[in-house]
Amino acid sequence: MKPTLRERQITLKHILIDSRRMIGIKFYPDKVLQALIKTLDNPRWSDEYGLILIENTPKNLRDIFEKFKGVAWINVQHFFTNRPVFAGNSLLSVDGFRQRPGRAGFRYCPEAFYQKLEIRKYSLNTARVYISMFERFINHYQTVENLLELGEQEIINYLQSLVLEGKSDSYINQSINAIKFYYEVVLEMPNRFYRVERPFKKESLPKVISKKSVLRMIDLCPNIKHRCIIALLYSSGLRRAELLHLKISDIDR
Fold this sequence. Notes:
Number of strands: 5
Strand content: 5-15%
Order of helices and strands: EEHEEHEHHHHHHHH
CATH architecture of the largest domain: Orthogonal Bundle
CATH class of the largest domain: Mainly Alpha
Shape: elongated
Number of helices: 10
Structural class: alpha+beta
């Protein structure tokens, strides 16, 4: 039975080989797809990634879409990004970071990093965290001038050093977010580091306050409204958001 368009599929991914941007093409063995792959510009197989690689150029990308149109489904979820601007945030300026005086032996974020934070209208707090975390990362590899030379293994080694330093899971996750922001958003190579793993999220049980402690809190609270809130939260098991949205009609008389 002849495969349908949906059954034939190729997946595009960003790959970096010796600072050269490459397009990685993943597909299940199929004579038609293999024949089309051979018509691309200098395709070669990578044992390391398990992908066909061709140079990442606008022409090669156009050729892929033209040659496989109507023949196979082209999965680009790992290749293109379409992240929305944070419309709820006010305009962000990171000039305070741009105008910092130079420090001997210390590298600051590239200008493109600042620009993308402003264009995307990230919150000032997020911008501070990303800048701090990314600068810590690039200064860990001060001898590497071209940041494109830093690959997945270097990132994994850096994260391992954070673990050995006793950094929290939250700190490590923020570091990953900052690093991925540069390579995947600033350099527009989404999901390039799809093999970088995050710490497992720890599940913890909620802390239950004893009845004696709650009664003491109520007794010591002079504001009748606050006393009512504490008593209602403890007796009903409501969450904070549920309490804030309570209406008079919700209360039985």
